[in-house]
Structures are given as C-alpha cells and as structure tokens.
Write a sequence for this structure.
C-alpha cells in the first residue's frame, strides 16, 4: 500500500450461497481522491462498497483501510473503526425520524464520552457549512429531500473521516438538488481533502470524479 | 446509552410507547390486584379473632347433656382442665391466654347463655368493656351481671334489676351491645369468671357430662406469634386430643370460601400467570417495535455504534417503558383497590364458637361478621411490582437488543 493510498481491496469476492456477486475484484483509492464506481443495477457495486467499507466481510480477499487490514477485525472493532475513520451517505438518507437535524448529524458521536454541548456545537457547525443552520431543530419529516441528504452528508463528516462511502447519494433527488449535492461532495474532496468512493449507475455523475471504475457482473471492466 | 435519543424515541413514537406501556401495565395491575385481594381476604379472616383480642380460640367438644335443666356445658365447649391450660401457656409462641366459661343455664322460665369472663385480661371477652351502652362494666369481687342489650329489651330486663341465674341472684349493672361486640362467644349474660365457675361446679347435670373443678374453663383465647399460629394449633390439638376445636385465621379463611382465600397456591399461580402475561405482552410489543427499527439499527451500526452501544440503548428504552408501565399498573391497581374496598364480605362464625341452643329464637341462624374487605396495596407489593417491571424491561430489552444488534448493517441498508 503506497503512502498516499487510503483504501485498497485485493482479490475481493463475495458469495451468497452459490451466487457470486463480487468476483476477484482489486482496487485502490488514494487519499483525497474522488472515485466513482459505475455500473448497472445488480452488478455488485453496492456489495463491493460494503466490503470496502467494512459493513460486510468478503468471502475471499483483503481490505486495507488507512493502513489497517480490516477483514480480520471483529464486528465491534469494525464499528469502532468506522466511527473514527469512515463516513457513509446513503441513497435513502437513512436519517433517524425521531431525532432533529443536529441530533442526526451527531448520531456517530452519541456513544463517545463528550458533553451534549460539544456534540451540538460540532453538529451545528457542520449544518452551517451545509447551509442548514436554521433547520437544525427540525425533524427529518420537516425537511426536503435535498436538505435530508445535506444532513446525511453532515453526519458523514462529523467524525472527520478520511474517506466517505456514498451509495447513489442523489438517486432519490431531482436534478437541481442532485447537482447541489454533487457540488458539496466535490467541495469536500477538493477543499477538505476527503477521499470519496461513490457508487452510481449514472455515467453523467462520474464525470466529476477523478477516476471512474466500471463494474459488470461482479467484475471490474475498466 | 444516550438519554436524548431515548426520550426522543419514546416521545415521538407515541403509538409504540403507549402500546408497550399499556400492555405491560395491565399485567402489572392484575398482579397487584390479585395479591391485594388475597391479602385483604387474609386480613379479613383475622378480624373475628382480633375483635376478641386473640389469634386463636380453643374449645373442646363433648357429649350432649342428657337433661337440659340447670347449668350445662354447650356440647361444643366442655371442660379444659387447669393443667391443660398451663401446658398451653408454656408453648413457645404463646404470648398470652384469656379464659372464659360458657354455660347454658336452663331455669324454669328462661334459658340463659352465660359467659364467665376475666375482667382485667386484655385477651378475650373483657374487650366487651368498649361495647357497654348503658351502665358500667363488671367490677372486682362483686357478683353482678351484664346483659345483652337486645336480650334485655326482649325480656324487659332493666338496669339495676336483679336476675336469677341457676337460683343465684345478680344485679344488672350494664347493657352490652352484641352487634358492636365480637361475634365470637356472644352470650345473653356476662358474669365474672369466678361466679360462672361456681355455677358450673355446683351443677350436677354439668358434672355428669364433663367433670369440672373451679379453675377449669371451656374457652381459651390465645394471643400468639403470627408465624407460629399454624404450628401452635396442631400442638394444642395434641394436648387437648381429637375433640379439640382450634380456630385460627386460616380456619376462617377456609370458611370465606373465596378463590383468593382458598390457598396461597391459587394466589401464587394467578400471580405467576399475571407475570407471564406481563412478560409476554412486553416481549411481543417490544419485539414488534424493535423489528420496525431494524433499518435504524443498521444505520446506527454503520455509523459506528457497537453491539454493546445498541443493546444498552434499546435496554434503557425498554427499562424506562416498563418502569412507566409499572407506575401506570400501580395507579390502575390503586384505583381498583379503592373500588374493591367498598366490597363487603360476610365471614360465617361457626355455631360452635357462639353456641346458641337451636331451639331458642334465632338459635339456628347463621351468625356472620360483616365487614368491608380491607383491600389496600402495601408498599412492599407496590415496590415489588415496580421492581419486577424494571426487571422485565431489562430482560426484554436485553434479549431483544442482543438479537437485533447482531443484524448486519449491509443487510438492512442494501434494500434501498
């Protein structure tokens, strides 16, 4: 693993019963790099994202994230590792409906020993960056799709991650809102130096990335 | 455990929260009500004996007198010898003994039920002192009588009249209201024990059925350590033989006949059922609630919550819900207990304990002690119920939390 490499997967395979969803994939992401994983629905890109982020263990192969081989880690070790190093953005936002915007942002910080004020300060600061400072007390049900995704991005950033995994982050948004979200992701990568691995089925979106990786039938094509 | 997250979850998911709380509170309320009722019946069973200042009464049944003339023993209360009384007095757990001598006296024109009482003993019929409606109580060394108020009215006996009982004269110094007095060992005429002893000792009819000497009695009122009552009852039967009739709160409880009064086993079984119902309700509603939150749990794990974090969060939510359910159940039970405390129960007093000859007016009537069921929720039961609720909450939350925390975040998040 090179000095600037933040993530590498080597010969990764994932089988569900007899069905092999990911087939011997190897890829690497450098620190601060914006990589787009493109492919049609069902090609295995979300599974690959799960393997690389430690949400799922591969049937075969190794994942190295920020200099640590995570495939051998226990579930709780992985959770702690994700809490400190990784951010997630999902297509359906996955905000907790009973928590306000700032509380959703602070969700990864809840298990940490810190004061409520500190959590709130960090969360509202990020919401301010997402231009949602005025919405911090609102529940997700009172937010638009774009606002929800911006809250989700703030949540992904609250632990100062080295890499963000984004799974179809604008799949549920209209084109204008989607463009705004992509703008934020680009800014994160260019200004904050956060590496991003984004999964999408839209070629158009991949143009903004540093690198494009195509997947088909569980394998990397290019 | 994050308090803010917990309160938000319970507050905003009102349907879930209320379903869980209501469901479990019904089980807890049932548990408290069942036990309060059982306890109330037990306390009610103590009342007839408590009213006469005793925990146990002892008699010995004998033969029916051949000839109903003069003074005789009721067949349910023949001689208990002085030595036997002394043996009973020495039994461990006996705190005090009161004695009485119950006689039927058949004079040519009237039949009397006479009870000889110890005037100064706080155990036994001397408690009649508080039921005097007119006149005064018996005084030391004087051969005088108290007459039951209704009986005096029926037969026109007035205060300061002199009555003749088995050819012996007694001035009437007071009226006793039997309706206010204990229903055990009620009589028409109350005499000092010494006078009753003399009547008994001088009666040939009585001696022929059951030899009697002054100092012997035929009624014992015993104050005893509560936890030893059952054991003492059997020891007394051992001293007095098979014909001993020993009445305890337990024997009154059996007379009450209610399911709650029948046995500890019934209450225990019913309580267990209530607890199982409460646990099942809590488990089912919370299992449903947690299953609805599988995706949320997946998100928590994805953003770095460990299994332990998830379990402690769910467990704390469950404990709080169950605690609130316990409080609500307790409130429901308190209201129900208040309502039930207006219920009246009739405790039948066995004929043997208040033996009016059946051929006298009202002699065959069953005597009842009627009282309001003393239903209340003791703090120990209330605390137990709340503690149980918390334990159920901890168990349910812990088990379900452990189960759901094993979920793989990728499994719930992939189905977007």
């Amino acid at each position: 693993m090179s000095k600037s490499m933040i993530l590498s997967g080597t010969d990764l395979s994932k089988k569900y019963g007899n069905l092999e969803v990911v087939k011997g994939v190897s890829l690497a992401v450098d620190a601060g790099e914006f990589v787009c994983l493109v492919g049609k629905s069902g090609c295995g890109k979300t599974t690959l994202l799960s393997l690389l982020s430690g949400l799922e263990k591969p049937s075969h192969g190794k994942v190295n994230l920020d200099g640590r081989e995570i495939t051998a880690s226990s579930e709780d070790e992985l959770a702690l590792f994700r809490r400190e190093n990784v951010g997630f953005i999902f297509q359906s936002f996955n905000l907790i409906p009973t928590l306000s915007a700032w509380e959703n942002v602070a969700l990864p910080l809840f298990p940490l020993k810190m004061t409520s004020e500190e959590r709130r300060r960090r969360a509202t600061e990020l919401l301010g960056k997402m231009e949602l400072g005025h919405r911090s007390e609102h529940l997700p049900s009172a937010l638009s799709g774009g606002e929800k995704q911006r809250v989700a991005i703030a949540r992904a950033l609250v632990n100062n991650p080295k890499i963000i995994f984004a799974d179809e982050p604008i799949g549920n948004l209209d084109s204008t809102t989607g463009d705004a979200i992509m703008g934020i992701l680009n800014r994160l990568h260019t200004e904050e130096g956060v590496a991003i691995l984004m999964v999408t089925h839209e070629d158009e979106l991949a143009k903004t990335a540093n690198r494009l990786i195509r997947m088909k039938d569980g394998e990397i094509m290019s | 455990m994050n308090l803010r997250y917990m309160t938000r979850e319970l507050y905003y998911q009102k349907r879930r929260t209320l379903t869980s709380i209501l469901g479990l509170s019904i089980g807890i309320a049932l548990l408290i009500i069942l036990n309060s009722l059982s306890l109330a019946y037990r306390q009610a069973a103590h009342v007839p004996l408590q009213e006469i200042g005793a925990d146990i009464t002892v008699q010995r049944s004998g033969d029916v007198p051949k000839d109903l003339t003069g003074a005789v023993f009721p067949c349910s209360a023949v001689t208990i010898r002085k030595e036997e009384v002394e043996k009973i007095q020495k039994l461990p757990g006996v705190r005090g003994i009161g004695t009485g001598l119950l006689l039927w006296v058949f004079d040519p024109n009237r039949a009397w039920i006479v009870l000889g009482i110890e005037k100064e003993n706080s155990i036994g019929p001397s408690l009649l002192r508080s039921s005097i409606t007119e006149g005064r109580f018996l005084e030391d060394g004087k051969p005088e009588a108290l007459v039951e108020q209704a009986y005096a009215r029926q037969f026109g006996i007035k205060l300061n009249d002199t009555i003749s009982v088995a050819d012996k004269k007694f001035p009437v110094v007071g009226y006793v209201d039997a309706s206010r007095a204990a229903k055990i060992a009620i009589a028409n005429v109350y005499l000092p024990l010494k006078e009753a002893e003399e009547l008994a000792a001088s009666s040939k009819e009585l001696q022929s059925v059951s030899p009697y000497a002054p100092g012997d009695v035929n009624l014992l009122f015993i104050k005893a350590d509560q936890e030893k009552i059952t054991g003492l009852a059997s020891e007394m039967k051992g001293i007095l033989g098979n014909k001993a009739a020993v009445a305890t709160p337990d024997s009154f409880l059996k007379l009450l006949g209610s399911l709650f009064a029948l046995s500890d086993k019934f209450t225990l079984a019913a309580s267990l059922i209530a607890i199982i119902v409460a646990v099942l309700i809590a488990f089912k509603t919370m299992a449903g609630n947690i299953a609805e939150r599988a995706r949320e749990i997946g998100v928590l794990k994805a953003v770095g919550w460990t299994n332990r974090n998830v379990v402690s969060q769910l467990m704390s939510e469950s404990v709080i819900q169950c605690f609130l359910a316990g409080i609500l159940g307790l409130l429901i039970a308190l209201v129900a207990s208040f309502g039930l405390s207006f219920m009246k129960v009739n405790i039948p007093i066995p004929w043997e304990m208040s033996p009016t000859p059946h051929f006298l007016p009202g002699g065959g009537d069953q005597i009842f002690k009627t009282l309001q069921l003393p239903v209340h929720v003791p703090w120990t039961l209330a605390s137990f119920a709340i503690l149980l609720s918390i334990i159920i909450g901890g168990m349910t939350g812990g088990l379900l939390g452990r189960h759901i925390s094993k979920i793989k975040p990728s499994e719930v998040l992939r189905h977007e």
Observations:
- The radius of gyration of chain B is 32 Å.
- Chain B has two domains: 3-47+260-413, 56-247.
- The mean pLDDT of chain B is 86.
